[in-house]
Amino acid sequence: MIGDSGTGKSHLLIALGAEAAMAEYRVKYVLAAKLVNELVEAADELILNKTIARYRRFDLLCIDELGYMELDKRGADLLFQVLTDREETASVAIASNESFGGWTKTFTEPRLCAAIVDRLTFNATIIETGTSSYRMAQTRARAQAGESA
Known about the structure:
Layout: E1 2-3, H1 9-22, E2 27-31, H2 32-44, H3 48-56, E3 60-66, H4 73-86, E4 91-96, H5 110-121, E5 128-130, H6 134-148
Parallel strand pairs: 1-5, 2-3, 3-4
């Protein structure tokens, strides 16, 4: 899912995960930064393979907020390992505020970025949620309602 902040990506991602869980699929929802931090810590503690194997057990891995921060080379490499490990065996759903062309801000190594986009878009459904923030629209509507009162 790709779209600007406030366009419903996280809500859609959570709803997708909830529906999958109700259909008895094993689902994990995680923020991208938290996942990368966990992978870095696991690598430091020499339990990376165990951590990646734990993420392999889920039928659907929902990663939220990818693209909000630049990943250093190590973090990007570790995330790539998780995504590659799941390739063509288990589903990944990602919410990002950046179009694929902007992912070079998150994954600064161009070849790694291209490989990640290639893997994620193969047989994928891409949902663009647009640019109009729901939260901003609600704030404006409340402000206009207050002016009318």
